[in-house]
Amino acid sequence: MEHFQSSKRSAFKKRNVCHRLFPLSIYFSVVLFAILRASAPWACSRLCPTVCTCSAERNCVVLCDRAGLQQVLSEFPCEASLISLEKNNIKFLSEKAFGALPALRSLSLNHNNISFITPGAFKGLPHLSELQLAHNEFIKYLHTRTFTNLKRLKKLDLSNCNLFNIPDRIFIAVPALQELAMWQNNFRRIPAAVRATETLRLLYLERNRIEAVAYNSLQGLRRLKYLNLQNNKIAVIHEKGFKDCVELEYLYLNDNLLRNLPEFAFQELRLLKMLNLGGNALVNVSSTWFSQLVELEVLYLDRNAISYIEEGTFENLTSLISLHLNSNNLTSLPFSVFQPVYFLGRLYVFRNPWGCDCKMEWLKEWMENYKLVRDIPCASPPSVAGMDLSQVFFPKSPEGTCVDPVEQNETVYTPIPTERARSTADNRFSNLISKLLFPKMYEDAENTTEIFRNVSVPGGANRETSTAVPMNSNLDPPIQVVFIPIIMFCYNI
């Protein structure tokens, strides 16, 4: 019993000693960490590779750009938070190519000649959040385990490589990926690998060879906010192609081969702020395409072949600020297309063959009142061709309705051919009588060979016609007196 109590007292004493020593151990750990942090800039500079430049700032930055490197260096400062190896001649990445760099956050290998990346090449980089491998034109293949252990990677750039496809499960090892850039590769379809990236927010796939957006191409991307598919060969979009992209805000589909769109292709994109459909081959614009896009602020429909826009196409776009309709085949823009129109901030409609008739009167008034649109050159009718819409005058009929410019310049009374001929003869006869009776008035015009007069033509335009009238000032007055009755007699006949 005494032995048990003595043992208990001994253990109690030991616990008290540990209790007293524990705060002391924490104190020494904190001091040691502070010393290491204070010496980090010095260590970064001291251990900097000779071909690199290292910062002496709080974060250790190692810059080895344009150093002529043929392979990855064997050692880097352990404190390095950013390493740049851009514009070298590195061709191969071996397994665990960078050793153990627990503080590394950003790694750039852009503009090298990398042709193969060994699986596990980035092991030992547990805190890496940004990896740039762009502009390596010899990368044609990536292994499924290329990015193993990069659990904190948020930004990956594989742009301007020579990838035709990537393994479907390659991003499973990257559960935190938010930004993925793969523009200017050779993809003919949206890689299925992106479906596994549920955390993805920004996806860059422009300048590939993608031909379609299938029903499952973007499946599961519920957090995606930015999608760039411009400069591809997309000719078909499935009606459910964007069904899961419910948080999408920016969508670029410009410079593709689209001739038509499903009626409700964008129905689920109710948070969309910018939609670019420019540079396609669209001919008609359906009123159903944008009916649910109440948050849309900027819409590009420029550089298409649009000749018709359905009524009410833009009526639900109550947040619209900028609308681009320039460089199409539009001849008319009825007010019914835009109702209501008060929301627009900027309207771009230049480079269209506009017909400046009464259907465009509302637009002219809107131009004058809000000063939000300009440069609308008229292609027709001929009476106003070449003028800007702002210069066209639209008078009112007695009933108060608008009168088209072509109607303004038409002569109300149009003589029949015989009457026109008789009128012409009358003019000539009167002209000749005046010259014969008042020769002195024409003496100053002896060197003139033509007298110009205006002839009204049915088209409404005034053409300047010249008639050569020979003048003989040598006629004697008696001859003139005899000659006049003869002419009058012949004319009456």
Automatic annotation (TrEMBL):
**One Gene Ontology cellular component annotation held by this UniProt entry:** plasma membrane
Domain named LRRCT: which ranges? Answer: 352-398
Which SMART domains does the UniProt entry name for this protein? LRR_TYP, LRRCT
Return the InterPro entries for the record. Answer: Cys-rich_flank_reg_C, Leu-rich_rpt, Leu-rich_rpt_typical-subtyp, LRR_dom_sf, LRR_TM_domain-containing
Q: What stretches pass through the bilayer?
A: 21-43
Q: Which UniProt keywords apply?
A: Leucine-rich repeat, Membrane, Repeat, Signal, Transmembrane, Transmembrane helix
Spell out the Gene3D superfamilies in the cross-references. Answer: Ribonuclease Inhibitor
This one is known as LRRCT domain-containing protein
UniProt organism field: Chiloscyllium punctatum
